[in-house]
Request: fold
Amino acid sequence: MPTNSAYQVCINPTCRKTFDVQEVHSGCPACGNLLDVAYDWNKLPVPKSLRDFEARWSTQQNPLDYSGVWRFRDLLRFASDDQIVTIGEGQTQLRPSNSVAKYVGVNDGNLLLQYEGLNPSGSFKDNGMTAASTHARMVGAKMTACASTGNTSASLAIYGGATGLFDVAVFVGSGKIAFGKLSQALDYGAATLQIQGDFDDALKQVRDVCAREKIYLCNSVNPFRLEGQKSIMYRVLEGLNWEAPDWIVVPGGNLGNSSAFGKAFAEMKELGLIKRVPRLAVINAAGANTLHQLFNQQSVRWNDGHTDDAKIDTFFAEMDRDNRRASTLATAIEINRPVNLKKCLRALAVCDGVVREVSDDDILDAKAKVGAGGFGCEPASAASVAGAKLLREQGIIAPSERVVCILTGHQLKDPNATVGYHSSRPGEIDEKLKSAGITEVKFPNRPIQVANDLEKILSVLRDLG
Ligand code: F0G
Reply:
């Protein structure tokens, strides 16, 4: 048994083997299940109230207090202060949007958007990467790697570039990631391997490579990464004056975020820091809907850790047999083999959660509504808003309930999707979007072609008036 107040532990209740935080594993060496970072809270100075964290607002010159992740370091205390790697992540905002509230169908003031696109690399991934980078430094890693649909790679690349602590190699599916994200990995100087395959292929390769070459793996199978992602929920509570909302709605890809959120709430409940746990809604794109199929159609549940593994294995065996590949315009969540499936099932149990799938048409319409309300997001992020709307239509979310949608990535990550959408009109869809299966756009804001002539320009503006 490790002697530290933080340790790693297998999530499988029939195994529960523990490992020191100085060890590096991407799964339990004994049974292959996922690992958690766990804490002996009795040995740690845990605040009595979440409000105690507010004291750190006045000491923001300290980079650890400035970081929106490490400001809450007492709840992820696996590293000492001098080991922490931070680039100022987590300066994100929770903002009400009444135009989106109207679209979703909840009362004014009840729809809040958590803008994780405001992170240094433009997505929520920085919350996790600061924690994974910290652990990489603790164990003396010289090289780090990840597979990615684009945001994880951008995030890992920025941490490598900005800190100079390690070299970075990123594995991406060839032609599978949005240009904004690819440009980031290249610009931040990461070795960028375009694997001829999709994300699921790239992840399998990078796991094998890391195991063989002792390269530090930064995908969300890394339990330290998820510790950082818990902080998104701390900031949501902070934005609501430490009150839990009724719903957290989040897109589901590899299911790291939803898993981290569930763990955050379970721990805060255990520590008496919150009275009530919000409900969690995880939203798949219809073209990458493994969680939806397993949870809703096959009724697979966490079941205190005794998941129906035979059902899960059969599902993936059939997927392989039929060579079913994920396909969605929300490329960030184009994933058929979510590695955190079991942790996500656990989060759904903790948070009385639900799972839904939404079409690409609905995702892009929701994205346009988010954009028109300010800040904006990339397609995958808008799955949360499309999912909230669906749950409202189904009567699962009530108009009087307070709903937080997580906007996981910045609008500029995928300008092609945005410009393609707004260049379309009903019955005349942009070629690229059409070939990706988009059939309808409800809220295009088309660019207006006008001659280089003052009178004609004025006449266009008058017509708008
Ligand atoms: N939203 C965005 C913008 C993402 O980039 C991702 C995942 C998700 C949602 C899904 O989050 O995996 O925690 O369920 N992107 C990963 C990547 C897979 O490689 O950038 P999840």
User: Anything to note?
Assistant: The longest strand covers residues 167-173. DSSP finds 17 helices and 13 strands in the chain. Residues 199-213 form the longest helix (15 residues).
